[in-house]
Amino acid sequence: MTLSRSLTCEVCARSFARFEHLQRHSRTHTKEKPYNCQCGRSFTRKDLLTRHERLNHGSAEERYNWHEVQSPSRQRRPEDQVLASPLSDSSPGDVPSGSTDAPMAENAPSIFDAYSTESFLFSGSDQSVGFDDPMLGYTRFLNTPGVPLDMNHLLLNQSLDHIPSLLDDGSLHHNVAQTVDSSSLVPDQSQGDDDFHELKPVRCPWLVSESQRMQLQNALGPFKHLLRSFQYPSKLAIARYMGGFVDGFSHHNPFIHIPTLRQMRNEHTPELTLAILAIGAQYRYEKKTARSLYHATRSIVLDRWCQGNLFRPSTQTSSRGAHQDLSPSDHDWMHRIRTLLLLTIFASWQGDLTLTQEAFEYQGMLARGLRGIGLSESSDESGSNWLAWTRDESDRRTKLFGWCFLNLQGFAFDIPPSLLGRELNMFLPSSCKEWLAPNEAQWLATRQISRTTFKEAHSTHLATGASQPSASTLSPMGNYILIHALMQRIYLTQQLSPDEHAQSLFPQDIANFEQALHRWRHTWRTSPESGLDLHNPYNSLAFTSTALLGVAHVRIYCNLGQWRDLQSCDPSTIAGTLEKAPPPQRGPELIYALLHSVHALNIPAQIGISYLAHCKSFSWSIQHALCDLEFAAFLSKWLLAVSASCDLQPLSVLENRVVCWIGRVVREALLSHDDSADMLPDLGEVDLNNPQKTTRRLSYAVVKVWAEMFQSCNSPWPIVNLVGQSLHKYSELIQPELAGATTWP
């Protein structure tokens, strides 16, 4: 009893197990701070004083090294040492800055090696027949034990503190001591609680100083008359938006070099910084601020356009290789191209009619700018200067990705491409190891001298003959560019059809494109950096490329692009147009289109519809939503076609298997989403003895699953929710047709 009373606080009567705990607690009442620093600060505990001295009174090197040891992203636990899959060609949010991580990435076993060659994606032959389990044929590569199923391997040494600031003077030898101390990231206006200030630092690698913020504001001075109502973001806001851009956007759009982003000098093009911040604010879900930054950037770009100095004058245009050193003014022209590309991306995915029309305005401007800056290279000899190489590679990627995005706009909104593939005479992008190298030493260690041009690789896919192309050394971005080239060719071939509403191509064209797509798949499969780690945002482009491959297979037989009217930004209009689209013709040749479509639904079903919608959609590319819209409509219409014709044309063995696959995937998807689980009793088991009723039920269910997922997802881009709303409206349109088959909630 005496011991208990001696460990009880006399003020609040709270009991403690140890005297030091009581002593520490008592100081919260007395405000006593017995541990004093020579600078005048006082602390309640000795360890807080020690930490304060290390952070604020040690040398720059000591402070930096202390952060190296203490940073959670650098201090790896044993369970965090999960080897990641081969890096895809994208920019990680935070680049490894130490050589200790390099061997890990270098020696990591490729999860690609664990994929079964029987998978339809990794084999040129039809492996869809003969499996005991109908699901096994196309999901084996997802269920391989070698595929990492946790997120720990994504923690790739997340610190960029050693890189100079984006807004500073561009010095290549920026002193680490100038980096803002992480302990200052939480403003401490109070004088009464030093404990909270010392114990709760917020790590913020993109924080800028007030002088750097003023540099941006001063650079925008010439455009003050355009920005009268514009509110400049605070230091913390800039840091937050930069983090959003790097963590969310750069994985899917790797054309700005993140390791040297802080060194980018853009005092002559401050609109590029505003465009980056607008994208970053979108990924931080601060949509009003994102719109404000977007409109500020747009005002500057349009002002330059009206003044005639947005792009380099034609008299300065010359045919030059990307290896040549560009003058600062030339890099300013490229910064303006990047700004326009970012504006186009931002406006295209807002699901807003006005902004979509603005995106179409940028389309012609971007095409003109890319042509003016030059889309040809004579050689690829960047030498051993890493910084010069990063500028050249960034310029190359900006041009190639700009062409891809213009092509993606055509795919999404069914508009003719502004730039044709034949206009590209450039080398394909570097490997991701080169692109992600955080310093010159690691870049030299991964340097690849031999490069392939776009025309060479594309011609290989279009070649006739039964032989497969040789093993590929292309990067994931290179494969992404090449699948876009094939999709553009399919689109242009369809436009030559005398029947404007023709769903399928001519037989010879179909055979040629099927062969070209199989060759592309072989190239993707043999590329050393290809991977399908569904939890890894750094595999974005490799993963997205396979979705585009599936859409290419679908469009050969069923061109739904002209029936989507996505540019209306109205769910009812989109659904009504889709409902009018004619169904595909049944036949064994549809197997790859069907497999890719079911596989696209199987991925979220295995992860979990609710989990993906709320936790993972942030890291998925928008292109998945665009592709899934087409997959959902295609599967639904194929199932309705089977239901309407199964009495006269019984289902083949292959069609029976596909229906079983769809049924299993749909049931699993419904189980993983609470709001859709009530549909399961009405769906029932797949009954192949009554295919008419079964396929009619499934035609509604596949659309409903995708609609629920996209309607509830937390994607920062509104167009994803627009896809979900459109599919929901479409499901309502086809539901009355199913009244005789079942009753749906």
From TrEMBL:
<keyword id="KW-0677">Repeat</keyword>
<feature type="compositionally biased region" description="Low complexity">
    <location>
        <begin position="85"/>
        <end position="99"/>
    </location>
</feature>
<dbReference type="GO" id="GO:0005634">
    <property type="term" value="C:nucleus"/>
</dbReference>
<dbReference type="GO" id="GO:0000981">
    <property type="term" value="F:DNA-binding transcription factor activity, RNA polymerase II-specific"/>
</dbReference>
<dbReference type="Pfam" id="PF04082">
    <property type="entry name" value="Fungal_trans"/>
</dbReference>
<keyword id="KW-0863">Zinc-finger</keyword>
<protein>
    <recommendedName>
        <fullName>C2H2-type domain-containing protein</fullName>
    </recommendedName>
</protein>
<dbReference type="GO" id="GO:0006351">
    <property type="term" value="P:DNA-templated transcription"/>
</dbReference>
<dbReference type="Pfam" id="PF00096">
    <property type="entry name" value="zf-C2H2"/>
</dbReference>
<dbReference type="InterPro" id="IPR051059">
    <property type="entry name" value="VerF-like"/>
</dbReference>
<dbReference type="GO" id="GO:0008270">
    <property type="term" value="F:zinc ion binding"/>
</dbReference>
<keyword id="KW-0539">Nucleus</keyword>
<dbReference type="InterPro" id="IPR007219">
    <property type="entry name" value="XnlR_reg_dom"/>
</dbReference>
<feature type="region of interest" description="Disordered">
    <location>
        <begin position="63"/>
        <end position="106"/>
    </location>
</feature>
<dbReference type="GO" id="GO:0000785">
    <property type="term" value="C:chromatin"/>
</dbReference>
<dbReference type="GO" id="GO:0000978">
    <property type="term" value="F:RNA polymerase II cis-regulatory region sequence-specific DNA binding"/>
</dbReference>
<keyword id="KW-0862">Zinc</keyword>
<dbReference type="InterPro" id="IPR036236">
    <property type="entry name" value="Znf_C2H2_sf"/>
</dbReference>
<keyword id="KW-0479">Metal-binding</keyword>
<feature type="domain" description="C2H2-type">
    <location>
        <begin position="35"/>
        <end position="62"/>
    </location>
</feature>
<dbReference type="InterPro" id="IPR013087">
    <property type="entry name" value="Znf_C2H2_type"/>
</dbReference>
<feature type="domain" description="C2H2-type">
    <location>
        <begin position="7"/>
        <end position="34"/>
    </location>
</feature>
